[in-house]
Specification:
heterodimer; A: 568 residues; alpha/beta; nine-stranded mixed beta sheet; four-stranded parallel beta sheet; 41% helix; B: 100 residues; mainly alpha
């Protein structure tokens, strides 16, 4: 996590700062802002209400709406804006029965203005509300600190600010694609209590009327919930695989089933070695994983051998496992897409797919059996959230590793000389969802591939070539002489470099790959390319150079490939 | 029970630890008697000083059971934040006057 340098606005100048883009707080061109206000500080009507004056709902609503409008306006000039919800100190909630009264109840009004604000901000792509109540609870009885308030107009204790800082850091990790993607789990005394090799699955502690057993079931439930947020699970355990598998399959209290795990290494080899192999198999970087093990020795060994891996300290008391998992603030994501919800299932499907590849052996034969369909769509409002998510978190097959907000990416792609497409991949095993992004920019007689992003889930299945086919076809329609791709090296995107070195594009100056636009870039015969909008390629070429556009049908004839571009 | 200078220095260092948790590595406050608490180029900024004072007041209240205000204006004690050593003296006098 890079260090964060902060600039604060002047005290009491919330609206001025939000509305005036020349205000000093904006001069440093910040990457993100936190707009954390007290409701009585920005809403005169709420301040009146706290002093027991009569305030109409309309007045309160109008002020909330004005504040929301100022936030929305300011959010357009920033990549991310965090807006903590409003809270008030307990001494404002001492009217007893009147706290929640329909008329004049401060606590009731607080709930209402928070909901109204959240609803007003919903849909704003760069605004992320944060839940202040959680920080207040973590701050304990002294969360509202009156000494600090009267000394320096600081409303909360340091504990509250620490909790807030943890959440904001976690959010920033999520926004910059650094959130963890997978949890690697030990089995004995982690997923269940006891040693399965000794006790047998019937003798394990899991569920039932037992404090540790109940806690372990809750722990598994929380892990299962993570899979619904797009976090993968995997097993790394020193055990006999057949014995462990039997326990997972047969124990009636197991919440997690085999299908919930993206992969496993259950054997007697060194765990660090197993983790390395497993992460390679799953095409994931070590720094995207969390390793949970009850053994301090194993944790130390893995921590020392694989320094990029996150190995949290783990409690010895199993009743604390659920809390320990929930306190890991490393899984934050800015949004939850259907692909996230389905990731665990897709991973199981992928395991099936890989097994079929082993059965068939020959890559070409295997590809031909997959019946792969690639649906191409131009970037649009419907696919933008998932496209931005993919752009911001993909590391390995990523040509330039640009990180951009939805708004910025959308604005960038709207320029007339640019196009961005998304790629959805499916095959006979299932739907992998939106897994690819390509963007191309025309620059004189040259087209430049700017973004070439593909999820590791579908790498190596000729989708990369299909993307180049689409981008180069579009560039050819614009009558460019060459199409180039400039590889920007990062610590993680060597797979992208490896692909381009074998792609057929000629390498120039080490990192520049060039294709002669006089030639068609072929599409692999096993790939069926589908367009949601048959006119897409024709329209885009006309935008660039109306007098020289070529028709989509011409593309297909010229390419002499078996791509089936289904119109409509 | 009177507070000793050693106890008060422990409290001050403990509060500086609390502050340092929130400061960047380059801005850490050294725990020594000569460390300035305020100054044009050294010491704490205004928010840091407010935090520090509040922490010390809370710790004194917790340990000795008395409320003490360390920011009351006093013409003879304007240099109370000059450095840690001076602040220990100030705190010692202020606290023990209250404890007597």
């Amino acid at each position: 996590m890079p260090a964060v340098d902060s600039v604060s606005s002047f005290h009491g100048e919330v609206f001025q700062t939000l509305l005036d883009e020349k205000a000093p707080a904006w001069s440093s061109n910040p990457d993100f802002v936190v707009v954390w206000t007290r409701p009585e500080g920005v809403l005169q009507a709420f301040r009146d209400l706290l002093s027991c004056s009569r305030v109409s709902d309309q007045d309160l609503n109008r002020e909330v709406d004005s504040y929301a409008a100022a936030l929305l306006r300011a959010s357009k000039r920033i990549r991310a804006m965090f807006v903590p919800t409003w809270v008030i100190p307990p001494f404002h909630q001492t009217q007893g029965l009147l706290d929640l009264a329909a008329s004049g109840g401060a606590a009731r009004a607080l709930m209402r203005i928070n909901v109204r604000l959240l609803e007003s901000l919903a849909g704003a792509p760069t605004i992320y509300p944060l839940w202040t109540d959680k920080w207040i609870q973590l701050g304990g009885p002294a969360a509202f600190n009156y000494r600090l308030w009267y000394l320096g107009k600081i409303p909360f204790s340091n504990e509250v600010f620490k909790a807030a800082a943890r959440d904001i850091k976690s959010a920033l990790r999520g926004l910059s694609g650094q959130a963890k993607k997978i949890v690697l789990l030990d089995l004995d005394d982690v997923l269940w209590g006891g040693i399965v090799g000794d006790a047998g699955w019937e003798g394990l502690t899991l569920g039932g009327h037992d404090p540790a057993g109940e806690a372990l079931v809750d722990f598994q439930r929380e892990l299962k919930a993570l899979t619904r947020r797009g976090i993968l699970l995997a097993i790394v355990s020193k055990n006999e695989e057949s014995v462990a598998m039997e326990a997972i399959a047969k124990h009636p209290e197991m919440v997690l089933k085999l299908v919930d795990f993206a992969g496993w290494r259950i054997n007697w080899r060194d765990k660090a070695e197993n983790i390395h192999a497993l992460m390679n198999e799953l095409n994931l970087g070590l720094d995207s994983a969390v390793f949970i093990d009850d053994s301090a020795v194993e944790r130390a060994r893995v921590r020392e051998t694989l320094p990029g891996l996150f190995v949290p300290e783990w409690p010895s008391d199993k009743r604390l496992y659920p809390r320990a998992l929930l306190s890991l603030d490393c899984f934050d994501r800015p949004s939850l897409t259907e692909e996230d919800r389905q990731r665990s299932r897709m991973s199981a499907v992928d395991r099936e797919r890989k097994r079929s590849r082993i059965d068939l052996g020959n890559l070409e034969e295997w590809l031909a059996t997959l019946n792969t369909r690639v649906r191409v769509e131009e970037l649009n409002q419907a696919n933008l959230p998932r496209a931005a998510q993919l752009l911001n978190k993909t590391n390995q097959m990523n040509l330039s590793t640009r990180r951009m907000s939805e708004v910025d990416f959308d604005a960038w792609a709207r320029e007339k000389t640019r196009r961005a497409w998304t790629f959805r991949v499916s095959d006979k095993f299932g739907d992998s969802g939106l897994t690819g992004i390509l963007s191309v920019e025309i620059d004189g007689s040259r087209a430049r591939i700017i973004d070439f992003v593909l999820s590791c889930r579908v790498m190596g299945r000729k989708i990369e070539e299909a993307m180049l086919h689409v981008g180069i076809n579009w560039a050819r329609a614009a009558r460019v002489q060459e199409v180039c791709a400039n590889y920007c090296q990062t610590p993680k995107n060597k797979p992208c470099y490896d692909f381009f070195t074998k792609s057929g594009l000629s390498c120039r100056d080490g990192n520049m790959f060039v294709w002669d636009a006089a030639k068609i870039y072929p599409l692999h015969s096993a790939i069926r390319l589908i367009s949601n909008d048959g006119s897409t390629f024709e329209k885009t070429s006309a935008d660039i150079n109306p007098s020289e556009s070529i028709r989509v049908d011409d593309h297909l004839r010229e390419s002499e490939v078996s791509a089936d571009l289904t119109h409509g | 029970m009177k507070a000793t200078r050693e106890e008060l220095l422990d409290i001050i260092y403990q509060c500086l630890d609390g502050l340092n948790e929130q400061l960047a590595n380059t801005d850490q406050i050294q725990k020594s008697m000569e460390t300035p608490l305020v100054g044009e180029r050294e010491g704490l900024d205004s928010l840091g000083l407010v935090n520090f004072v509040a922490l010390v007041e809370e710790e004194c209240a917790r340990k000795y059971g008395i409320a003490v205000s360390l920011t009351d204006p006093s013409p003879h004690e304007d240099d109370r934040f000059a450095n840690v050593g001076r602040f220990v003296d100030f705190l010692f006098q202020r606290l023990n006057n209250n404890l007597l």
